């Protein structure tokens, strides 16, 4: 095991200081922080200032009324930016440019309520009760959608690093020197573990940046109960998904000796990951759909679909345990098969090695 950890330490020290890794780490944090501010930027104003001439209407949510002596003064306040709109004698609304749609609805509602009260009618508002699932459903769907993108980006990014590292060592024949000091499984395992820890660091930055930005923008108050469980689930499924796809990436990468051939040799894996991403995206919108429920327990689709379903809806614990168990079995199988291919192909330089030939 010492050899494995030595290789892992080498991978971490080599990659963490590269400009590409640092830039990608910073961009990941900036992207998730920017996404947390998007709802606030697109949600319009939180409060409105309305100049009033004549009787002050009934109170309206997020609206502050300021009395003015005449219409000219109220119009001047609007044109000068001191008020978002002016209400003249409870008859007309004056605004600079197009009236904010939400403000218009608030003023219309206040006007209607004032007329009803003036007529002596008393209307008791309806009592609305919603379950916890319905209350947080839109937020959970948003979290699940973001989770799809994060997992897909980190899984494909980390797996590609594994494949490129294998090809780089094979093409330069450094792998022959390394194999004189460590066993093939230690070299492969160390590469997967080291780059996986860097992937976890990237995931931690994304999650941490997102939570901090959500707290700063007030979105954290709308988070559903059990956010800690969603975070832990994301980390666990990322580890399982990364182990599966990185073993595939290492196996396919060991078949070629040039960086130019990496994309073509990884085509089957990237197609599988893209299909998994599309299913997971569908599951974020329809977490209880038949397709989402079936594929959330089928490896490797479960690596992205199950955490997304868990974030978007309440999933029975039996399905989660079954999905995790099957994924662990799949990971072990792929690790053994990938190690076998890697062991036989990584020292064969030159032309591309055929997978069927290696397996035989």
Automatic annotation (TrEMBL):
<dbReference type="GO" id="GO:0016020">
    <property type="term" value="C:membrane"/>
</dbReference>
<feature type="transmembrane region" description="Helical">
    <location>
        <begin position="226"/>
        <end position="253"/>
    </location>
</feature>
<feature type="domain" description="ABC-2 type transporter transmembrane">
    <location>
        <begin position="63"/>
        <end position="338"/>
    </location>
</feature>
<feature type="transmembrane region" description="Helical">
    <location>
        <begin position="265"/>
        <end position="284"/>
    </location>
</feature>
<keyword id="KW-0472">Membrane</keyword>
<feature type="transmembrane region" description="Helical">
    <location>
        <begin position="320"/>
        <end position="342"/>
    </location>
</feature>
<keyword id="KW-0812">Transmembrane</keyword>
<dbReference type="Pfam" id="PF12698">
    <property type="entry name" value="ABC2_membrane_3"/>
</dbReference>
<keyword id="KW-1133">Transmembrane helix</keyword>
<feature type="transmembrane region" description="Helical">
    <location>
        <begin position="143"/>
        <end position="167"/>
    </location>
</feature>
<protein>
    <submittedName>
        <fullName>ABC transporter permease</fullName>
    </submittedName>
</protein>
<feature type="transmembrane region" description="Helical">
    <location>
        <begin position="188"/>
        <end position="214"/>
    </location>
</feature>
<dbReference type="GO" id="GO:0140359">
    <property type="term" value="F:ABC-type transporter activity"/>
</dbReference>
<feature type="transmembrane region" description="Helical">
    <location>
        <begin position="20"/>
        <end position="38"/>
    </location>
</feature>
<dbReference type="InterPro" id="IPR013525">
    <property type="entry name" value="ABC2_TM"/>
</dbReference>
């Amino acid at each position: 095991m010492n050899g494995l950890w030595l290789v892992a330490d080498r991978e971490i020290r080599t990659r963490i200081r590269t400009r590409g890794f640092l830039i990608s780490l910073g961009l990941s944090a900036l992207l998730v922080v920017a996404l947390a501010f998007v709802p606030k930027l697109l949600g319009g104003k939180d409060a409105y200032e309305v100049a009033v001439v004549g009787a002050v209407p009934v109170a309206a949510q997020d609206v502050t009324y300021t009395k003015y002596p005449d219409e000219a003064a109220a119009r001047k306040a609007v044109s000068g930016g001191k008020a978002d709109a002016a209400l003249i004698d409870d008859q007309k609304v004056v605004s600079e440019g197009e009236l904010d749609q939400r403000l218009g609805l608030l003023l219309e509602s206040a006007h209607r309520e004032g007329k009803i009260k003036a007529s002596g009618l008393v209307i008791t508002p309806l009592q609305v009760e919603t379950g916890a699932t319905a209350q947080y459903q839109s937020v959970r769907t948003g979290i699940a959608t973001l989770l799809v993108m994060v997992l897909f980006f980190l899984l494909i990014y980390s797996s590609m690093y594994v494949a490129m590292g294998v090809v780089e060592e094979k093409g330069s024949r450094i792998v022959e020197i390394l194999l004189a000091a460590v066993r093939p499984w230690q070299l492969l395992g160390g590469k997967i573990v080291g780059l996986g820890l860097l992937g976890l660091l990237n995931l931690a930055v994304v999650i941490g940046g997102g939570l901090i930005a959500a707290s700063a923008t007030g979105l954290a108050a709308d988070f559903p109960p059990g956010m800690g469980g969603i975070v832990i689930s994301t980390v666990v499924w990322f580890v399982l998904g990364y182990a599966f796809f990185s073993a595939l990436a290492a196996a396919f990468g060991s078949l070629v000796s040039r960086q130019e051939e990496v994309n073509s040799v990884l085509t089957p894996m990237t197609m599988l990951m893209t299909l998994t991403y599309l299913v997971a995206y569908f599951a974020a919108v329809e977490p209880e759909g038949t397709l989402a429920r079936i594929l959330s327990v089928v490896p490797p689709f479960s690596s992205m679909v199950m955490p997304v379903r868990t974030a978007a809806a309440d999933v029975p614990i039996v399905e989660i345990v079954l999905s995790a168990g099957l994924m662990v079995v799949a990971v072990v199988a792929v690790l053994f098969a990938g190690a076998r291919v890697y062991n036989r192909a990584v020292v064969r330089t030159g032309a591309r090695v055929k997978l069927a030939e290696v397996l035989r």
